[in-house]
Design a protein that fits this description.
Elements lengths: L7 H7 L6 H25 L2 H9 L6
């Protein structure tokens, strides 16, 4: 009969090892830097639609 197929995901579960501390620290720092950049981009980019709409609004003259 046909051989039973092995599930590659079960192989991954068996091969879990602890990550070296230096690599873990580098990855966490990279993630923190990316999150900071995303937060800054959203902070400065969130007001652009209102800024553009205010530029095109006409104000009545007094």
């Amino acid at each position: 009969m046909a051989q039973k197929e092995q599930n590659p995901f079960k192989e991954l579960e068996r091969n879990i090892r602890e990550v070296p501390p230096q690599l873990r620290k580098k990855v966490m720092n990279d993630v923190a830097a990316a999150k900071l950049l995303m937060d800054l981009a959203s902070l400065f980019g969130a007001n652009y639609p209102s800024l553009i709409s205010s530029l095109f609004k006409t104000q009545p003259k007094k």
